Amino acid sequence: MPRMQIYLPDDLYAEVKSRKLPVSELLQGAIRAEIRREELILAMEEFLEDALHEFGEPSSEALGRAEDLAARIKAHLNPPVEEPDVQPGAHETKAS
Fold it and tell me: Quick count: other Cβ atoms within 10 Å of Cβ 60?
């Protein structure tokens, strides 16, 4: 099996060692994920090119609807985080 040497900053190396992380497996997973991400980006770009060629540029109305939909999806996937209403130094208790 071919080998590759990598370099880590000292702080990252120390974390990896202290946590006894499986570096080889982690790197393999990260590299496979990046390759897949790049493949999906290329496929999306090809799909968009084909769609533009077949259907033409979208209207400003269609772009507006798409932007609204994207904003709603983003809000659904990343809802705002509500901070607990606790005073500094106060302890929360549960009612029984």
Answer: 8
What does the pLDDT look like over 41-89, one tens digit per residue?
A: 999 999 999 999 999 999 999 999 999 999 999 999 998 888 777 666 6
Does residue 28 contact residue 20 with C-beta atoms inside 8 Å? no
pLDDT of residue 89: 61
- Decide if 24 contacts 32 (C-beta within 8 A): no
Distance CA 48, CA 56 (A): 10
The 8-class DSSP code of residue 83 comes to P
